[in-house]
Amino acid sequence: MTWTTKTTIKTLQGISDSSLDSVIDLLISQAEELVKGYLQREIEQASYTEYYSGTGTPVLVLNQSPVQSVTSVYIDPKGYYGDGTDAFPESSLLVSGTDYVLRKNNASATEVSDSGILYRLGTDWNRPQKTQRGQLASSPGIGKGNIKVAYIAGWETVPADIQFATNRLVTAMLESRNHAGRIHSESIEDFSYTLSGSEAEASLLDSIKGSLSRYRKVVL
């Protein structure tokens, strides 16, 4: 799925024929991957089922955000990412509001969670203890996928400024073809896109990063 379209790009560029359709499709795909790489998150709303290891603290940060809702949370010391024997049985299901709570932006029960933080109530997210040979006291071990979380995250309607920035990125890449500004290199991880011989487009991409920065995932 995409959050910009070939029709949108052609309208912005005043293109009325289909001669560049395949090029635009390719650039949209590349631009959206670059935006996701820079933001370090998926964009459109989707359902996720993921495994986590206990942190030994009351805080668990989900991989995707904003979190729209949490469907279920299980904790099983021998779950092993779902590979354990009878992993995550119904008896390991936790209760929202009793065993855990999703941190919300505001006071509304239907409000989303930009942070994606799950708080464990009354205790910590279990991190198994281990005892080393020759030691009397145990030490923190590794959870090894002892928590299973199903949730819905992402935007049902992609924010307008993300759409705008993506459209600007696609049009800049498209226009570079007409100004001898050949795409010289790209990097999804660092969100760099070098257009040789075109300082104006490079400056534009820096401004796009600025408009996207407030959506970038903070890695703790």
Structural features, described:
The longest helix has 19 residues, at 21-39. Helix 2 (21-39) crosses helix 3 (160-176). The model is unreliable at 180-184 (pLDDT under 50). The strands form four sheets. The chain has a three-stranded antiparallel sheet, with no helix packed on it. The chain is 26% helix and 21% strand. 26% of the residues are buried. With 220 residues, the protein is of the alpha+beta class.
- The termini sit apart by 29 Å
* Biggest beta sheet summary: 3 strands, antiparallel
- Largest sheet strand order: 1-8-3
Number of helical segments with 4 or more residues = 4
Secondary structure: elements and pairs:
Elements: H1 6-13, H2 21-39, E1 46-52, E2 59-61, E3 67-75, E4 100-102, E5 117-120, E6 129-130, E7 139-140, E8 147-153, H3 160-176, E9 183-187, E10 192-195, H4 199-212
Antiparallel strand pairs: 1-8, 2-5, 3-8, 4-5, 6-7, 9-10
Helix pairs in contact: 2-3, 3-4
Tell me briefly what this model is:
With 220 residues, the protein is an alpha+beta fold. It has helices spanning 6-13, 21-39, 160-176, 199-212; strands at 46-52, 59-61, 67-75, 100-102, 117-120, 129-130, 139-140, 147-153, 183-187, 192-195.
